[in-house]
DNA sequence: CCACGGATGAAACTTACTTTCATGAGGCGT
DNA sequence: ACGCCTCATGAAAGTAAGTTTCATCCGTGG
């Protein structure tokens, strides 16, 4: 089992559960059964013996051990302890909010709002917790010193890509976003050493984005991937991998929470880059803010 | 030496560590050595194997087991797990998050990440709390029954508008977004009774958006405003006002947190509308998901 | 069709945990 | 002082848990 580029295997400070759910799709079916049990109720899993857990997951002990290794643990006892710690730290969700789940059919709007907000907020928090500052730092460095930055993304991730592009542009970095694959490929072909290409894909399997990132990399550009799944194909064409931690399973809630998580990461990178050259960034920001000032009307509250 | 054989096993309020140190004097010398190690560093003890701990306490495994029983545990594994949980709970993050504030100049990336995530998550939560389900309900009704929906927004709010448009479109609602004011005005002029216009503006002062919303209203469309400021100009041209709760002060964090808050509201409306006609929405979603399927790589699981 | 590689569980194996038991050190009554 | 009882203690036996190995099976691509 070869290891991908820069996946910080040992780094999952934000929480084991989050880490595991990110890895979930990269696990074998039998291991996935184990993973689901663990994620569903970490405290309970910590109480079980390996044989017990194996039985519950309808598999063998061997598979449970494999699962432990897959998620970066030494063995079952270590997993158990980590799970116990994790479960203890976690604040139990107050009510019957469907954690990472679907909205129940008969739900009224107040319930819907509570569920969405809860999941959204958690995705943001957990994403921040598991973000590796060291990798971020390197990405910030690369972007801050880049000659040109291309941001790629399709569908929902396209909005995020576009947002990132606009943000970078506002602080005076030369950044591009292309809604069209062909244009993006063309642009990627023109990148070179010292340039940066950022590919955003929740699933990490969007072929368009992967392709473009690959192209960029082959031209010598530094490539960065932003995905929810640390072992997805996109990570293979990235020099740096940043992950979100939206742990929803259904495509529906998925697209929602993951988008916020992605934006949070974008925000962090943005502020990081801005902080790197504070004076210049501030000046650029003020200039752009002034530019739209004439499109604002008075009488309302406004920012200073 | 009234060492009672049966110490209240079930209930040890205030934490296991406290409990252990409480009955430390009642333990035998060898057990006390074990207890002291455990109390001194629970997390470390949880990591050790029973033999290891016994050696460290200069005693035998048997004594460690006796100690476990003395403090009310079933056996060593249970103690281990409880200790891990305990240790996790007591080590509270030494939070240096700048609440609602700006990022300090000298901040390192880890700090930046924590601050952003905190503010982002709080904006989401607080927005949800103050959202009026009744108003949402009416908006959902209007959108769900609308002939056509126009979503307006400029700058950062433009992304949100665009996102909303795309979401509505995915569940089969006829929705439009226009990056260009003139086109938007044209479209607004074509709206009529039964149509819905949604204007998104963080400050509520974006004249372009207000203007377009006003136009839409004058044509008889139902108008909805999404803003952070309930008394801003945009609310004057809106039939329904939904507010976000990003309480940032600076332009920098402002644009970031407010965007997430807006998206959360969009999510709520979206799910509300989708839930309204569940079957139809689901079908539409599945169709759109299938449509992009061929653009994904790695059919099942990723990267073995 | 076969070769190959990965996934999987049965079983062998190792390590960790638990119990049993013999020893010996105090305490205490005679 | 002596014997006897009690209890702490660790050695060793015993049991259960965790880990490794390996043969089998299944799908994939030549």
Provide the fold topology.
The structure is a homodimer of 304-residue chains.
Chain A: H1 16-23, H2 29-40, H3 42-47, H4 50-56, H5 61-70, H6 76-89, H7 109-130, H8 133-144, E1 149-153, H9 156-170, E2 175-177, H10 181-189, E3 196-200, H11 207-218, E4 222-227, E5 240-243, H12 251-276, H13 278-293
Parallel strand pairs in A: 1-2, 1-3, 3-4, 4-5
Chain B binds a DNA duplex (30 and 30 nucleotides) through residues 28-31, 49-51, 59-66, 75-77, 304.
CATH architecture of the largest domain in chain A: 3-Layer(aba) Sandwich
Number of domains of chain A: 2
- What is the number of E strands of chain A? 5
CATH superfamily of the largest domain in chain A: Glucose-6-phosphate isomerase like protein, domain 1
> What gross morphology of chain A would you assign?
globular
CATH topology of the largest domain in chain A: Rossmann fold
Assembly status: homodimer
What proportion of the residues of chain A form beta strands (DSSP E)?
A: 5-15%
Protein name (chains A, B): RpiR family transcriptional regulator
GO molecular function (chains A, B): carbohydrate derivative binding; DNA binding; DNA-binding transcription factor activity
GO biological process, one term (chains A, B): carbohydrate derivative metabolic process
Keywords (chains A, B): DNA-binding, Transcription, Transcription regulation
